[in-house]
Amino acid sequence: MDATPLHFLVGPTASGKTAVALELAQRVGAEVVSMDSMLVYRGMDIGVAKPERAERERVPHHLIDVVEPSEAFSVHDFLAQARRAHEQVLARGRRALFVGGTAFYLKSMLQGLFDGPAVEPAVRALFERRYDEEGAAALHAELARVDPRLAQRVHPNDRKRVVRGLEVHAQTGRALSELQTTWGWHGAGPSAAAAARIAGLALEVAELDERIAQRTDTMLARGWVEEALAIRAGCGFGPTAQQALGYREVLEFADGRLSREECARIIALRTRQFARKQRTWLRKFESIEWFAAPTGKQQDPARVADEVLVRFGW
Questions:
Q1: What residues does each domain of the chain span?
Q2: Are 290 and 200 in contact (CB under 8 A)?
Q3: Integer Rg of the chain from CA
Q4: Could you give the CA distance from residue 31 to residue 95 in angstroms, rounded to a whole number?
Q5: CATH number 3.20.20.150 is the correct assignment for the domain at 7-112+189-312
Q6: What's the number of CA atoms in the CB half-sphere (13 Å) around residue 35?
Q7: What is the mean pLDDT of residues 171-196?
Q8: CA–CA separation, 210 vs 232, rounded Å?
Q9: pLDDT averaged over the chain?
């Protein structure tokens, strides 16, 4: 299993990932493994743009509706469940397509998350003092000798990360970048990232903004308010679920503290801001191959699926 290249479809919210994923999965006999931190919550359907029941019947989906909104769901939980789903898919002779916009999950699978041993105050103080006395360039050059991979990703002026890399090497005799690959998805690291096939959906900012506004209005019309009220009256929103975009504003609208217009405007604004952050995060993954999203004048997910398969094969 660990030798099997992982396949991903990523992109910002409202970029059309669901439609393209369905086309791709059907063509290659794949099952979708959600890589979205909010689709795991039962009852949060409209507000997180969860794939419809018919779409999930068309192609099997995993990591959707696995916990209640009152429960926390961490990246540790995601990694464990995603690996289990991947094993089950392969055991059926099928393929897995990881789909979502949570870049932190993508990072955890390809690069690992372990950040080294606990801080030794005396060791950290030593490197902090040396950073001040010898300068950023000298300490960064030392980091490049003991952990060249990390040094490539860290600017000399990034004092915190330079010092952390040096103190970890001093404590363990091993590079922090090496330790980071030993936690998380088995085999995570440069080789896993290089072998992964990652398709990203990209579109112009103006088009994405318009699509977000339209989707917000549609979700409100479909019963988002009632959905949020039902969750609040039931199990309630836990520490992770309450971070989902829009639910706070929807409840403020329901309670009479916002008008519908204000509610829609604020949700669209925050969703646009979130989409920009997603794109910034995803642009850090150099191995992503970008494709024009099915939006605007080209509402054709089949076209995108064709382009992805031509570029990647499978």
A1: 7-112+189-312, 121-180
A2: yes
A3: 22
A4: 6
A5: no
A6: 30
A7: 68
A8: 30
A9: 90
Strand partners, 137: none
- HSE of 75, CA atoms in CB hemisphere, 13 A: 14
Instruction: Calculate the CA dihedral of residues 158, 162, 167, 169 and round it to 10 degrees.
Output: 150
Residue 259: Cβ within 10 Å count? 11
pTM: predicted TM-score of the whole model, two decimal places: 0.78
For 38-79, how does the pLDDT look when each residue is reduced to its tens digit (9 = 90+)?
A: 999 999 999 999 999 999 999 999 999 999 999 988 887 898
Q: What would the two tokens of residue 280 be?
A: 């910034």
The CA distance from 33 to 269, in Å, is: 29
* In CATH, 121-180 is 1.10.20.140: yes
